[in-house]
Amino acid sequence: MPSRLPVQDIFAGLVTSIGTAIRYWFHYTLVAFAWLGVVPLTACRIYKCLFTGSVSSLLTLPLDMLSTENLLADCLQGCFVVTCTLCAFISLVWLREQIVHGGAPLWLEQNQQQPANVAARANEAPAPGNEAGVAEQPAAPGPAAAPEENAVLAEALEVQAEPEEMDLDNEDEEEAGAEDAADANNAAQDDMNWNALEWDRAAEELTWERMLGLDGSLVFLEHVFWVVSLNTLFILVFAFCPYHIGHFSVVGLGFEEYVKASHFEGLITTIVGYVLLAITLIVCHGLAALVRFQRSRRLLGVCYIVVKVSLLVVVEIGVFPLICGWWLDICSLEMFDASLKDRELSFESAPGTTMFLHWLVGMVYVFYFASFILLLREVLRPGVLWFLRNLNDPDFNPVQEMIHLPIYRHLRRFILSVVVFGSIVLLMLWLPIRIIKHLLPSFLPYNVMLYSDAPVSELSLELLLLQVVLPALLEQGHTRQWLKGLVRAWTVTAGYLLDLHSYLLGDQEENDNNANNNQQARNNNNNNAIPVVGEGLHAAHQAILQQGGPVGFQPYHRPMKFPLRIVLLIVFMCVTLLLASLVCLTLPVCAGRWLMSFWTGSAKIHELYTAACGLYVCWLSIRAITVLLAWMPQGRRVILLKVQEWTLMILKTLIVAVLLAGVIPLLLGLLFELVIVAPLRVPLDQTPLFYPWQDWALGVLHAKIIAAITLMGPQWWLKTVIEQVYANGIRNIDLHFIIRKLAAPVIAVLLLSLCVPYVIAAGIVPLIGVTQEMENLVQRRIYPFLLMVVMLMGILSFQVRQFKRLYEHIKNDKYLVGQRLVNYERKSGKSSTATHSSSSQE
């Protein structure tokens, strides 16, 4: 083997590599053009063509496809349309899996049973235990299961009575009845085969690389065609048809002006179309059941379930949080010195943004309410909150409830939820605001105006609040434990005052026996359940929907005048929530205003910052008090040792905080200002002004981003050091390790990055004797210039490493056979050298 490769070999390898790169570049460009250009652009143009409302748009559709106007906007809108159609397709597949595995409703499958089996079960005498279970089930203490259970019983009796009537009417036609039974059995079997499609075999052969075209083949062009076709089909079925059904209905009923005034004409019209489509489907399903068209009846029923679940999802996830958000805004108008006229003007100016913000606030409110209910379940006796759904229950499946429960039960639950959530908002927001305005007239309204001419940038304060204060407050696990302890203390107090301790917390000495009894009772209920159609998850979900009592119910002692005590408990709870809301609305803001007044004086500060500051101070105070209370039983000497230990730890933490959260963010923010912000914003004939506070706040954000990228990147010294510091925590903080391994190297690099360009621009350049304009140009542009030099050096070093790898690859391809290098030299002197090198390679 030669000491170095010939030039022609290197050139041939480069040409081959460049050819391969160009081929891959063309292929991936075609892939990107197809998926990011053709698919979204086609979807957008077809969507606009269908919703233009004219026949000429259909005729000019091929020309519109080739039009180059508004390409970027149409591609972005098309990406949104493709995303919606993809979500609709995934939702349909997932809903199909829910129906297949969880079972369809009984009204959809009641005629799908085999007649012979139904007749045999009708002639069998039920067991005494089953009779008792069926008889006792409607009287079980379930909150809202009685109407459904009665409906299930009636349907079961009807299913059992139908074969008897058929046997009485068809006594003289036994052979015809047998043939009908066989045909029905075959039809049912065909329906089952038609319902459960086997897609696993096709999915195993198709991968993401093959489907998107990342494997180098051109098979993805066929997939592009099918995606465009499915987009068109979904737009027609799920957007075009419901919209026009709703549009014709709205115009026919004379509600067109009201719909236009809502600023959401398309959305409301489409929802109206879906509602009318659901009503039409259920009517057609009933007609198909009357004329005994089994497959048509089943198809119409499945379509109705799809539309029903879609509408319920829109109501649960879209409408309900939106109602909560608007109600929260209306009840808090006096807190911000606003009126309904202001909200109307904001809605008229930006309807989409206003609705989204109200939906977001309502969703946050619903989330925290559900989290508080989960906390209550950990404290209260199982069975107290029987009227609320348990989200942690493994048997709880909201999609199965949407599939099986009738519409009136969902409507009743929706109205009850609106009443409960709205009443809580009145109790904890509107009433405390009225009381505060009466007792403290000067406390409200909150200052929520943004001042762009403030000495401290609002953006910096928001970044500081979101990146430092709130994460430090929310990431602490003590807050949840404190809240749980307060709830338990209130429950114990209310239980002993009203003699409801057994009802609220249960009898502790009987927990083990109750657990065993509950398990046995649950097994009995499952054994005594009504036989349902299907197996596996279907039977399990039907048993869940038919069970009588709440899951995990524990018995309790019922005192005298129990209803009166429950009413007093509710009144006591309302008073407690009112007082808690008053404290939460006043104490953090007062503390924050008092602390911020030492810094800003009489200037008005956004109440978000004062509330966050006061809340953080209150949390620190409560934490210190709880720690002292935990140390008090150990004696004075232990307390002094703990205070000394914690004082030393606090001093170390302050030093580390000054270095890592003070100096490094300040240097990083100043460097970012010099490299990026000042060259872009300040002209050469003006002097840039630097605000250290703003640079520090932005540096905190940049430091967090860099730390996150470092932790997600490959293993190197900075990632190792950060992981070690994070693993040690605050209790085992190693000040020497942090300063020597983390703070000193990072600060040294940042200081060099700041000082070296300044020394060159202010110390060396004037000695050369250039003009004043050139000195100013060098001082203002040396930081981005050096950044470009560093980036260029990094790119060059990367390319050198890549060329070395290419060089080794060419050498191995030409001279490496198996795992041995072949000696191609003719001279015997170099033969030994080649042999020695081959042995060393081995």
Question: Can you offer a commentary on this structure?
Answer:
With 842 residues, this protein is mostly helical. It is 77% helix and 0% strand. Helix 14 (265-290) packs antiparallel against helix 15 (294-331). The radius of gyration is 37 Å and the shape is globular. One of its GO terms (molecular function) is ubiquitin protein ligase activity. Its main location: membrane. It is found in: Membrane.
Q: What is the mean pLDDT? A: 78
**Record field, number of beta strands:** 2
Which descriptor suits the 3D outline? globular
Share of residues in strands: under 5%
Helix content: over 70%
Number of helical segments with 4 or more residues: 32
Q: Which sequence of strands runs across the widest sheet? A: 1-2
Instruction: Give the distance, in angstroms, between the N- and C-terminal Cα atoms.
Output: 15 Å
- Find the structural class using helix and strand composition: mainly alpha
Low-confidence stretches: 113-182, 187-204, 451-459, 512-517, 519-551, 826-842
Based on CA atoms alone, the radius of gyration comes out at 37 Å
What does the largest sheet look like? 2 strands, antiparallel
Biased composition (Acidic residues): 162-182
Transmembrane segments: 71-95, 224-246, 266-290, 302-328, 356-376, 414-436, 456-474, 566-588, 608-632, 653-676, 696-718, 742-770, 782-800
Domain E3 ubiquitin-protein ligase MARCHF6-like C-terminal: 638-811
Organism: Coilia grayii (Gray's grenadier anchovy)
